[in-house]
Specification:
The chain is an alpha+beta fold. The chain is built from 10 helices and 17 strands. About 25% of the residues lie in helices and about 30% in strands. The strands form 3 sheets. A 6-stranded mixed β-sheet has the order 8-9-10-7-1-11. A 6-stranded antiparallel barrel has the order 12-15-14-13-16-17.
Length: about 325
């Protein structure tokens, strides 16, 4: 049974400040003078264009254009920090290592070195500035999407990055593991409310953000998941899997056999992942993530459906309940 969102945690994350534990993320550091050009040939976005304090969302693909993982890439000035789903971190690290030949590149697993928290919501900048002390809320608020700053001082030494992949705009903050409990206590005492997993998932689904190994996997082409505008550069040079992406975009005009869409359902039942989606008597697809939306007061889902059924307004059924294809996001968030 899918747990409902906590009203208090949801209100904090969307109208105040919510604290989300991101310890499940993997963290890899790429160092050396060739780090950007090395990653440029492997990832889908324009890593070589990143300057210190900037980052991007990207995908690592197989030669067949299928996803190995999605990841966030931050050029910190002396190293590049990668954050990615924790369950693929070891495999990705081993795979990246295989492609180092004569480049001046070194890889480091810093997953256990850092604690990682997301502080989200309209009050996030002010609350985080108060916890870190040596940075102003205006400086934090000015960080661009995927941008980063380093904060050092007696209170906390931290890396702060602007994120929105939680579904509610805010910040990821990385601190040495020994300082993690102290930072968490400072955030909570400042007014942040911890957001449980069910509430965090509802916020993410409302924002229409797919997550790897839930809404995307090793069989997914990025265009099926609708992440190409955020994750793929159409102007950079070659990268692994590019030929497949270009073929679909240009020869196929972006048409794929299935697409990830939003569904708003009637009734109160929240379907489990894997529940079938039907169009009359035809199998049309399956649900990948679902929640009872606190904002809409109705069940919502992300689901892959065949391309004949992707248009907003299309009527389908999920486990017998009427459902309507809806444009994503279900609930727009204020950046």
């Amino acid at each position: 049974m899918i747990q409902p969102a906590s009203p208090g945690a949801y209100a904090a994350a969307t109208r105040g400040a919510g604290l989300i534990d991101r310890s499940h993320r993997g963290r890899i550091v790429v160092s050396g003078r060739d780090r950007a050009s090395y990653l440029q040939g492997l990832l889908t976005n324009d890593i070589a264009a990143l300057t210190a304090g900037h980052g991007c969302y990207a995908v690592y693909l197989t030669a067949q254009g299928r996803m190995i993982t999605d990841l966030l890439v931050y050029e910190l000035g002396d190293v590049i920090l990668l954050t990615l789903p924790g369950d693929v971190k070891d495999a990705v690290l081993a795979r990246l290592d295989q492609f180092i030949f004569s480049e001046d590149v070194a890889l480091g697993d810093v997953t256990e070195t850092f604690c990682q928290f997301a502080v989200v919501g309209p009050a996030a900048a002010g609350l985080l500035a108060g916890a870190l002390q040596n940075v102003g809320d205006d400086e934090l608020a000015a960080i661009p999407e995927h941008g980063s700053i380093r904060v050092s001082g007696d209170a906390q030494a931290a890396i702060v990055v602007r994120v929105s992949d939680t579904g509610e705009p805010g910040f990821d903050v990385f601190v040495d593991r020994a300082s993690g409990d102290r930072l968490k206590a400072a955030l909570v005492s400042g007014g942040a409310l911890e957001v449980d997993a069910a509430t965090a998932d509802a916020i993410r689904i409302e924002a229409g953000i797919p997550v790897f190994h839930r809404d995307m996997d090793e069989d997914t082409i990025p265009l099926e998941a609708g992440i190409e505008s955020r994750a793929i550069s159409l102007t950079k040079g070659c990268y692994v899997g590019q030929e497949v992406i270009i073929r679909v975009l240009h020869r196929g005009h972006g048409r794929v056999a299935r697409k990830l869409v939003g569904l708003v359902m009637e009734g109160t039942a929240v379907p489990a992942a894997g529940t079938g989606v039907r169009a009359d008597e035809r199998d049309a697809g399956k649900v990948t993530s679902a929640a009872l939306s606190p904002a809409l007061g109705r069940p919502i889902a992300l689901a892959y459906v065949q391309r004949d059924f992707v248009s907003p307004g299309t009527r389908l059924t999920v486990d017998g309940a009427p459902a309507t294809v809806t444009a994503l996001p279900f609930v727009p968030r204020q950046a």
